[in-house]
Amino acid sequence: MKRLIVFDLDGTLAPSKSPPDVVISLLLHDLLGMVKVAIISGGSWPQFQMQLLPKLHADESLDNLYLLPTCGTQFYRHEEAWTRLYSEELSPVEKAKILASLQQALEVTGLAPERAWGDVIEDRGSQITLSALGQRAPLEEKERWDPDFSRRKRIAAALEPLIPEFSVRIGGATSIDVTKPGIDKAYGIRKLRDILEIPLSEMLFIGDALFEGGNDYPARQARVDCIPVRGPDDTKLVIETILACFGGDGEAEAAAPERQREGATPEEAEAAAPAQAA
Ligand SMILES: [Mg+2]
Q1: 205 in the same domain as 70
Q2: How far is the CA of 239 from the centre of ligand 1 (A)?
Q3: Full domain range(s) for residue 230
Q4: What's the distance, CA 260 to chain centroid?
Q5: Total-model pTM
Q6: Do 174 and 189 sit in the same domain of this protein?
Q7: Residues 240 and 27: beta-carbon distance below 8 Å
Q8: Domain end residue (candidates: 160, 179, 198)
Q9: How far is the CA of 94 from the centre of ligand 1 (A)?
Q10: Is-contact 83 101, C-beta < 8 A?
C-alpha cells in the first residue's frame, strides 16, 4: 500500500490558476484522513495561498498535507499554521540572464502574444516562469492558446540553447518554467523522500503532464508509480479509487453520484462507479 499520494496542482487538482472545486476539496479531505498527501507545483507559494488554501478543510487532517511550491525548492507543512521548512533561490545574475533569454526566445519565435493579462514573465525566487498570456489571463483564452503544446515547444527549443546551464520545462496551460538544472518534480519528490522518510516505491504520483517533456515527466523518470490524468474529473475518479482501496467511507462519496448524474450517461456512471451500482 502507498504511504504518500503526490499530486500536481494545475490541470490535475484544479483548472490552471483556479481553485479546486467542492468535490475535489471533499475528496482531498477524505484522503488526508487516511494517508499522507503532497502537492507539487511549479507555482509560487502566493499562488498556493490564493488558489488552494482557502479550499482546504481547516482541521487536523492538514497535518498530513505537504505543499511544495516551485517544484520543491520550497517546502511547507502544517503545524498550527503553514510553516516553511526551507527555500532555495536563484542568484540575481542567474535571474537576469534567464529573463533576457526568455524575451529573446519570444522575439525570435514571433510567439509573443498581441495581448497579455498581467505579467508575462514572473520571478518566483527559485524559478522564472513565462506565462505566455500573462498571470491573470482568462482560463478560456489560456486553454485556446496552446492546447497541443506546439507553441511552447517552439519557445522552449529557442530558449534552451540560450541558457544551456538551466533547465527548461513546459507546464500549466501557457507556461514555461526555468530553474537550475535538476530542479523539477523529481527534485521535490526526493525532498519528500528525505524529509518524510518514505521510499519512492511507497509513493504514487498523479499528474496531467506525464508525457515526455511535460513538467510531471520527471516523476516518472524518478521511477515513482504514476497515474496520468486529463484533468480534475479524471483525478476525482483516481482519488475515489484510492479511497475505495483504503476502505474509505467519507463525506465526498455522497457528492460523487450527483456529479456522475450530471456528466455521464447511466452506463458510463455505472462503469465509473461499480461499487455504487452494486
Ligand atoms: Mg499540471
Answers
A1: yes
A2: 16
A3: 4-88+183-277
A4: 24
A5: 0.73
A6: no
A7: yes
A8: 179
A9: 26
A10: no
- Check residue 72 and give left, alpha or beta (phi > 0: left; psi -120 to 50: alpha): left
CA of 262 to the centre of ligand 1 (A): 25
221, 190: one domain: yes
Do residues 153 and 30 both lie within one domain? Answer: no
| Cα 215 to averaged position of ligand 1 atoms, centre (Å) | 7
Q: Residue 268 C-alpha to ligand 1 middle, in angstroms?
A: 26
Number of domains comprising the chain? 2
In this structure, what are the phi and psi dihedrals at residue 217, rounded to the nearest 5 degrees?
Answer: -55, -35
Distance from residue 22's CA to the centre of ligand 1 (Å): 19
pLDDT in tens, 20-57: 999 999 999 999 999 999 999 988 899 999 999 999 99
How many whole angstroms from 244 Cα to the centroid of ligand 1? 25
Query: Within 10 Å of residue 200's Cβ, how many Cβ atoms?
Result: 17
In angstroms, what is the span from residue 277 Cα to ligand 1's centroid? 32
What is the 278 CA–ligand 1 centroid distance (Å)? 34
